[in-house]
Amino acid sequence: MPTSSGNTAPKQDLSSAPSPEPAHAAHGPERLGRTALLDRFRAVRGATECLSAPLTPEDQMLQSMEEASPARWHRAHTTWFFETFLLKPHDPAYEVLDPAYDYLFNSYYQAVGPQYSRPHRGLVSRPTVAEVTAYRAYVDDAVTAFADRADDATWQACAPLIELGLHHEQQHQELMVTDLKHALSFNPRWPAIYPAPETQAAETPLGWQDFPGGIILCGHTGNLTEDGFAYDCEGPRHQVLLRDFALASRPITNAEFIAFMEDGGYCDPRWWHSEGWDRVCAEAWTAPLYWLRDGDAASPSSGWTTYTLHGRVPVAPREPVCHISFFEAAAYAAWASEQTVAGETHDVRLPTEFELEHAASGLDPRAGHFAGTAPGTRALHPRGARLDAEASAGGLQQIFGDVWEWTQSAYAPYPGFKPAAGAIGEYNGKFMANQMVLRGGSVATPEDHMRATYRNFFPAHSRWQFSGLRLARDL
Amino acid sequence: MPTSSGNTAPKQDLSSAPSPEPAHAAHGPERLGRTALLDRFRAVRGATECLSAPLTPEDQMLQSMEEASPARWHRAHTTWFFETFLLKPHDPAYEVLDPAYDYLFNSYYQAVGPQYSRPHRGLVSRPTVAEVTAYRAYVDDAVTAFADRADDATWQACAPLIELGLHHEQQHQELMVTDLKHALSFNPRWPAIYPAPETQAAETPLGWQDFPGGIILCGHTGNLTEDGFAYDCEGPRHQVLLRDFALASRPITNAEFIAFMEDGGYCDPRWWHSEGWDRVCAEAWTAPLYWLRDGDAASPSSGWTTYTLHGRVPVAPREPVCHISFFEAAAYAAWASEQTVAGETHDVRLPTEFELEHAASGLDPRAGHFAGTAPGTRALHPRGARLDAEASAGGLQQIFGDVWEWTQSAYAPYPGFKPAAGAIGEYNGKFMANQMVLRGGSVATPEDHMRATYRNFFPAHSRWQFSGLRLARDL
Amino acid sequence: MPTSSGNTAPKQDLSSAPSPEPAHAAHGPERLGRTALLDRFRAVRGATECLSAPLTPEDQMLQSMEEASPARWHRAHTTWFFETFLLKPHDPAYEVLDPAYDYLFNSYYQAVGPQYSRPHRGLVSRPTVAEVTAYRAYVDDAVTAFADRADDATWQACAPLIELGLHHEQQHQELMVTDLKHALSFNPRWPAIYPAPETQAAETPLGWQDFPGGIILCGHTGNLTEDGFAYDCEGPRHQVLLRDFALASRPITNAEFIAFMEDGGYCDPRWWHSEGWDRVCAEAWTAPLYWLRDGDAASPSSGWTTYTLHGRVPVAPREPVCHISFFEAAAYAAWASEQTVAGETHDVRLPTEFELEHAASGLDPRAGHFAGTAPGTRALHPRGARLDAEASAGGLQQIFGDVWEWTQSAYAPYPGFKPAAGAIGEYNGKFMANQMVLRGGSVATPEDHMRATYRNFFPAHSRWQFSGLRLARDL
Amino acid sequence: MPTSSGNTAPKQDLSSAPSPEPAHAAHGPERLGRTALLDRFRAVRGATECLSAPLTPEDQMLQSMEEASPARWHRAHTTWFFETFLLKPHDPAYEVLDPAYDYLFNSYYQAVGPQYSRPHRGLVSRPTVAEVTAYRAYVDDAVTAFADRADDATWQACAPLIELGLHHEQQHQELMVTDLKHALSFNPRWPAIYPAPETQAAETPLGWQDFPGGIILCGHTGNLTEDGFAYDCEGPRHQVLLRDFALASRPITNAEFIAFMEDGGYCDPRWWHSEGWDRVCAEAWTAPLYWLRDGDAASPSSGWTTYTLHGRVPVAPREPVCHISFFEAAAYAAWASEQTVAGETHDVRLPTEFELEHAASGLDPRAGHFAGTAPGTRALHPRGARLDAEASAGGLQQIFGDVWEWTQSAYAPYPGFKPAAGAIGEYNGKFMANQMVLRGGSVATPEDHMRATYRNFFPAHSRWQFSGLRLARDL
User: Fold this and answer.
1) CB D246: neighbour CB atoms within 10 A?
2) Which residues contact A365 (CB under 8 A, 6 or more apart)?
């Protein structure tokens, strides 16, 4: 159970809500200029190839569940996105490489046309991985040539599409990692794909930071030039009424979660949503996804090991708990509310998405632990909180990066939200039912992809993302 | 497509938010006094028997899906509720009629003990319907005797439990009706169980009522004595920030919904949530639940008939559309936003639960069309809006009764919500995931069971409740 | 493990194969005469009502799986059979009671027309049980009147249809019992519907009777007048080549089956068909259907109890094991083949259907333990073998009655088999895939319904019939 | 409908039943000598590599259903077989390449140990295809070295294991082809993997060959030295009683099957087994597997195309119908029995496995159209019957090769059959439930793998093997 130590961080004045994006982001016209955008295009497209570099063609075929896709498909689909939304409508010189790709690599854009059955993506072996690589190069060349050739008016119209395509590709980079991890976990040899992390020190105590309530502004303005890129679902920017609240200084760790487990957390329906409890029973959940009790029971991890992209390893006590569902996050919070610390209990809960956004809005996303500039060259695994002077001084750690944090907010349209017209409008709005919002990004999130207004969403039972939790409480 | 006629209803002053309950409700100490409460006990218990009077023992066995229960079970379970939460813990003189009932008639209270498998409730033929009737009488007698005998302190403690038991039973009265309707719809002879309604007049035009935004109070105080009964999930009463909005003057009618259908509404993924579209395809939805196209295609109902508790009848154009899911309600709103009326389109949407509560808070629930004081003696079928002087003058019709209205609000805890300790705490909180809120009650809701703060909730795909929709829009 | 004591019963001369029916059966023209047939009509129809007499309307609604039907439906369907195949085509005076019954009560006769969905038979509460009773009386009267009125030629044509209808009804009597038992087993109060049996004595040793091989005749001639009634699938009578074989003197008992269980029989894939093992794992079989280990572990039944139609009772060691699938019967035989008795093992196996028919062909079916002449007035539960002078002298016991005996024969057409034209032809032939033959009848089989050529059939995993096993072996 | 022309082929004397194997097969000690057997070892192992040569690593990952396996797995599993049953128990010098392979590449041998989940075989990407190739080479070298080194006694004991391993591998060669075809059929680009066949001439008329009945010998002696290899389920050789019968001179062609389809064969429950009809409805069968109606409707194939391993092509009228289930074969026969040819109908049916074995026992398997000596270098697609002098003279064509022929015989143990002890005994016996026998081999069957006694078996609904039908009839 987390210890409680409400800190004395200076109260923030909410009347002048800060800009949702920190000053460091490259905004303004130069962001969408040809040079800058093409540089970014090459960097993002290259990062996808970095991630897939250690993968064999066989690895890239794996699809372990309907919700996941093969790496081969992710690499092709992100390419199809540029072909479909940029080159075909805007570049008269573009010649389609293979007309069949349209059907094979459309994901869910009904407005574009029919799609190959999602659960069967793993059943397509041709075009091969090498042909997909060639497709990527072909489209990369076409985009580059188009950027050179386009007149200014065309470029103005198209630069936002390229920007969108890059963010889209970054999302798929993360899914490629999580889908791959899920699929490889079926291999009893526990393949190690990416490097292992360095070992880490002892646990950091849990503190609290208080926030006074009031009317704040949340969401993104949608002004790409001024405020940088955001998905449509992040806006409109609007007023939100918050109450006084506190946030835990860091996510819940494996050690804390094991305490819940050892107290019978997975056996007691009291802590669970009704639907969560049905899942626990039907799927025999006894621990986070990928955990097995096959190690030394006397160890700090109580014998639990977990599958990671660097192989199966003992669960590290001070790392944030990861690969839990919303149901597990909520059950932990319900259980923690009943635990006595220093003779008293505290009602804790999951934060709302607005509380997290508000807390994050003054912080620099670049401080978060993300996938790195050459993704795949270091561990894709969350780290524990720091235990240093800065951390001791209070403040929030890991609000960006390491693990996505489940909120108690259902994914819903902001007031005044209206999806964009056409296929692009299918990006977000149609998923606004039966999904919960996660915030902050994870170690699998690409560098430079995160911002305070970012809304991720998954069904409440999903566990294959790098998802954890941070506690909140009322004041 | 609804016509738009923003009216000029006087703006309400939101700074002094009205009490959530109208003045007519019997509040204060007398409400929980022995005489008044026992009168109500007899009335509510009798209403259940009124509803089941036309049912044969065979009818009372029917269970057509896991979510539904046999009438026999509803009648026993509501009785078990008084036995378990009132008589066994508080009445030392009470002798259990049959110990096996505890296992058979517990619904989902994990804290009470194990429960007989819900999907198999229809597989229990003994105790028989007559034995269930005897069980009801036995517990009724015990409660009456207990009320006579209990000292004042005991009564003070127990009266709220009786109150809760009565509201619980009223909820099951509605479920008994909706579950029965679902089960009987499998009978190709279309049994008529309750009386048919009187025929109704022509369609009432759709108007709009505007509401200015601001911070309002929503939810119930939880003060039973002062403000009357409410479920725990209706509180705490708390501040909500609303924007300027308008509500349609009445729910969408069958005629309006048929326009959506005839425009290909069920065939166009553009209007649907992704998960809703999956349902449309997987379950081949082409119309609201219970509708069949087996009538005269040239009729006002375009040949559609619907199963009702008075048999299969043509769909009546001016009645509110009923037995639709949240997905269908949202798809209708998305489609309606694209329709041109008098040369312009209006973005319409589903209201939030707070907008509906705010609009309802000044209105008298007793004006709604509910199941009546002797339920089952008149039609259990929604009526159309009135077309009279009062209606023409503007204002909201049918905000209470006829059909539940889907909102865009996911069912979530209010700020500061904490479930009650023990089994009673399982009543609401554990369902706060993947459910959408409905407001206002329906024709199957018992008389005197509704209030402005009442939150009903069902999964987004559910269609077997009397559920419809009312449009809202931003100003 | 059964003891082996090959007896010295006189070898039968197979060259003159016996008639398939014993002399006692009422054959010849008188069998189909009006008086005799109407007597039998009344007796068989009355037996159905005997069986349903202790059932409440609620009991008659139960349908616990797709393969089973409610008692209410069995009573109506057997009535529909006479209406459809006798009265409607042959009695011009007949007036249909309710045209909707045709759709509701057709089982699977595609040639007659569409049928109400089988898995939903339990979802029809109207016509009520009382209306079904009235339907039975109405058709009974019509058949009686028709028999009085019909001219001789019509009677000649129709008598075989009545005969078929009576055998059809007798089959449904048995299914009504087995379906009811299955449904009632979901009731945790273990209802007792029919009387309990008298207690029985100690176990009878297992002996063997030898049979020399050769070409024998099997199957029925199809000559109703000469050889009595048989279903089409029992013919044509044809030559079968048998090898020398022996049959166990009685079925395997519960005590013997418990030995298999206690030796880990349900945990060892060695004994099982691959598909059987999949069932064991998927459905967690650890004992025959209806068995629970909730009794005294030191008892002769090792703590096993079983649900019977007289309530839940301890498993009786000397009764034949019952409610096992073909897979369990075959696994028992495989295990028994590896057991050492007096220092040696014997390959035992399930008999073929021809071996059982050949052994039964000289025996009197009336000696079997069947449901009795007033079914439901005594226990519907198999008895153990007798331990008396006759039994000690060798010979086969229980070849008829008590439990159906699984054979190793797949249900297949006999050489030259051709289904009858029209709907009647759907009776048997279309089920000749993925079914195994059982022989001999059970305690739930109506008196006077069995004969040596009778072929029952069920899928290999079925367990809800009164099915057991008798061992065979090669000589 | 096939034409009937009972020929006058000389009646065969059944009293001296022919040897089950033709004279050409290499029997006797030399067959199991080191040189001959190692030659065969290299040839069979090489044939597997021939088949997989055109496959990319991606292709070798595909698993499209639980019943099928990836090519990668087939190649490893057949290697594991030699390692597990030959090298590990018999070669003390053998060093296991990777202990994890035991778990990964065991198929269903419970006696060997646990197995990796069959439905998830497609989810293992490591060891890679290249590592599997190395595994094959490693084991090939070990077997060769072992053969050089083993003393005579060891060799005598081991040669039958090698023989079994080779036949096992040949079975998997066929499965590799059929599984691959099934998986590739999910690719909308219809990959062509193997060469296309040469075009073929017009249809060959259907004739009949008569066979007199009597007691014949069927099955294999099990004498490897004298009679060559056979699986345990092919024995014991035993007497079978046949009646007079006739066999069609060739399998049913696509043109004949299209006549059934065009007469509404897939829409009329009259022709179908009950379970077959359920399949037709549930899986919307309207044609054999892989057929689509996307061609020219005026063509001889009525617009039907089919997926083959040389791409999607029009259905060739005179080729044997292929990829049909037992249910479709039986429905065709039922329909054909009602067709009038020259004013009369003939009851036709599927043959028994014994009729086909008897007819095949005098014929040379080498005459059949199999996969060839370098499989994968020519079309893997069935050819039509020849229309030449020999064919006109009567006699049976294609009794071996082209398409497996469904029989009406359920797969059951022959009299006296007992599975071998240990893991090898799991090869056949445990599948003897709910499977139908097919005879004769197909174009995907390896050269030199077929014999008259060979019993293949699949569930009645299976369609992904190269399975067709030949009619039989009683005389």
Assistant:
1) 23
2) A22, A400, A441, A450, A451, A452
Q: How wide is the angle at C-alpha A400 spanned by C-alphas A396 and A405, nearest 5°?
A: 90
Give contacts of B474 with chain A, Cβ < 8 Å: 415-416
Averaged pLDDT for residues B181-196:
97
The DSSP bridge partners found for residue B214 are: B242
How many angstroms separate the CA atoms of A63 and A69, rounded? 5
Q: Given a cut of 70, is residue B14 above it in pLDDT?
A: no
Chains that touch A (3 or more CB pairs under 8 A): B, D
Separation in Å, CA D361 to CA D12, D389, D396: 11, 23, 12
pLDDT for residue D166: 96
pLDDT of D140 reads 98
Per-residue tokens: C290? 């209806």
- Cβ separation A432–B273 shorter than 8 A: yes
Contact B303, B354 (CB under 8 A): no
With an 8 Å Cβ cutoff, the interface of chain B facing chain A consists of 108, 110-111, 215, 238-241, 243, 269-270, 272-277, 326-327, 330, 347, 349, 408-410, 412-413, 415-416, 418, 430-434, 436, 459-460, 474
The share of chain B scoring above pLDDT 90, in percent, equals 77
Q: Which residue has the tokens 């305070």?
A: A452
SS3 B259: helix
| Residue B342: exposure state from Cβ atoms within 10 A (0-12, 13-18, ≥19) | exposed
Q: Coil, strand, or helix at residue D473?
A: strand
User: Cα–Cα distance between A138 and A136 in angstroms, integer?
Assistant: 5
Domains and CATH numbers, chain B: 55-184 (no CATH), 208-214+243-284+316-474 (3.90.1580.10)
ipTM, 2 decimals? 0.91
Dihedral (Cα; A37, A39, A41, A42), 10-degree rounding: 170
DSSP-derived 3-state class of residue C150: coil
**Range scoring the smallest mean pLDDT among B154-163, B463-472, C384-393, D205-214:** C384-393
- Give me the residues paired with residue D349 across strands: D472
pLDDT for the residue numbered B12: 36
Mean of pLDDT values over C129-156: 97
- What string of H, E and C letters represents the secondary structure of A373-391? CCCCCCCCCCCCCCCCHHH
Residues of D within an 8 Å Cβ radius of A: 56-62, 64, 72, 100, 103-104, 116, 120, 122-126, 128-129, 183-184, 186-189, 191
Q: In what helix (H) or strand (E) does residue A357 lie, and over which residues does it extend?
A: helix A353-360
Q: Which residues pair with C192 in a beta bridge?
A: C310
The more confident residue out of C4 and A88 is: A88
Its pTM stands at: 0.92
Q: Is the pLDDT at D11 greater than 50, yes or no?
A: no
pLDDT tens column, B212-242? 999 999 999 998 888 999 999 999 999 999 9
Q: What percentage of chain A's residues is helix, strand, coil (to nearest 5)?
A: 35, 10, 50
**Interchain contact, B434 vs A108, CB within 8 Å:** no
